[in-house]
Amino acid sequence: MQNLRTYTNRLKDTEMAAKDISKLSGEAHPMTGGDGPNSYANNSTYQKEVAVAAKELVDRAIVEKLDVKFLLSSSTTFQFADLGCSIGPNTFLSVENILQAVKFKYHSQGWRCSDQILEFQVFFSDHTSNDFNMLFKSLPKNRQYYAAGVPGSFYGRLFPKASIHIFHASYAIHWLSRVPKEVADRNSPAWNKGRIHYLNSTDEVKRAFEAQYAEDVECFLQARAEEIVRGGLMVFIIPGIPHGIPHSDALANVTYQLLESCLMDMVRKGIVSEEKVDSFNIPMYYMSPQELEGSIEQNGCFSIEMMEILALPNGTVSNALVSASHIRAAMEGLLKQQFGDEVLDELFDLYHKKFEEQHSSTIEAGKAINFLVVLKRN
Ligand SMILES: C[S@@+](CC[C@H](N)C(=O)[O-])C[C@H]1O[C@@H](n2cnc3c(N)ncnc32)[C@H](O)[C@@H]1O
Asked: How far apart are CA 374 and CA 66, in angstroms?
């Protein structure tokens, strides 16, 4: 009887885990795969420059905050996960930087990182539909770590309990798990008709996005809190907005309004349907560091070890061609799903043209920050 009860309880646990894992699907909009001219691999220099700008601070955080003696008391495999890794090459750079900093820290504590003593395992994680083939094909040949791919959404559980020493995510957690339902519902006061984002929209729409962000960030932190080892670190690089400015002053608002006006031009020409524009929304949220700080405090599982605003990369934001190609590489999947493959060339030609016509002062007036946050599991 006792055995039967234990078995039934185990079964319930397994069912719970299965339910958790089923949350992993949700909306997925991976970056453009492959290595063609529109691919993310060839159009992500901005994100790379942000990672480069963060390097020194990330090194410092690892050297000062990572307690290697404590972490290695239970295992000689150092497990590291990059969430929202996409297809490279930026993920390889971030992974290499972090592993070098970890090795430096171990050496400085008198540990030998030879194969027998300390091994590194890196989990590259992204949505199931991410181009993992491209990622695996371009893994650095001289890497000194075991590599594995982990498919699924970071808004649910991805790893076993207490198994990861460092989590990293760059330019990823501003993607929401989904567009809030009410903004695409014509019967809701939060219906976002004629707009494709919350930044320039009504208070109802803004509140719906804020609520989705709050729900998502809690799911994210809760999942990581279970997966990370006690004392483990999380390093995030996030595009956001400065504290206290209206959403409409965000630089992203300038770019999304341009994209929106291109889509509306195409509606007028009869190339895309107005209904499709009305029901289209970009599932991204630009948080301020203070907003994230509030969410982390509310979650209560992590202490904030570092929070710093990074220097913005020069030039790339106001370059029309770079802006068009970067936005295309990041959003092609999302746009294709709603409007079809055949409109993309025309849409981005138009975007490029409008961006060039836009007065540079309008673009430069848009407020944007990238910030680094380092958390430690309590
Ligand atoms: C702009 S790319 C950043 C890629 C890379 N980290 C870099 O810095 O170049 C954002 C990545 O986050 C992934 N992503 C967005 N939401 C996600 C989610 N809920 N779960 C897993 N990956 C997600 C996307 O698929 C995409 O590959």
From this structure: 11
Ligand 1 center to residue 33 CA distance, Å? Answer: 12
* Residue 167 CA to ligand 1 centre (angstroms): 14
Please state, in angstroms and rounded to a whole number, the distance separating the CA atoms of residues 71 and 69.
6
Ligand 1 atom showing the smallest separation from residue 130 Cα:
25
Integer Cα distance of 232 and 376 in angstroms: 6
Give pLDDT, residue 22. 40
Which residue is associated with the tokens 């409007």?
339
According to the model, what pLDDT value does residue 306 have? 98
- C-alpha separations of 288 from 206, 241, 249, 306, 370 in Å: 14, 5, 13, 15, 9
User: All domains of the chain, ordered by start, with CATH?
Assistant: 31-377 (3.40.50.150)
* CB-ligand 1 contact for 285 (6 Å cutoff): no
Amino acid (one-letter) located at 300: G
- Nearest CA residue ID for atom 16, ligand 1: 175
Interval 8-38: pLDDT, tens = 454 444 444 444 444 445 688 889 999 999 9
For the chain, the farthest-separated pair of C-alpha atoms sits apart, in whole angstroms, at 77
Amino acid at the residue 28: A
The three-class DSSP label of residue 378 is: coil
CA distances from 272 to 262, 359, 376 (A): 11, 27, 47
CA pair distance 86, 171, nearest whole angstrom: 10
Ligand 1: residue whose CA is nearest its atom 23 = 84
Rounded to the nearest angstrom, the distance between the alpha carbon of 84 and the centre of ligand 1 is: 3
What mean pLDDT value characterizes the chain? 90
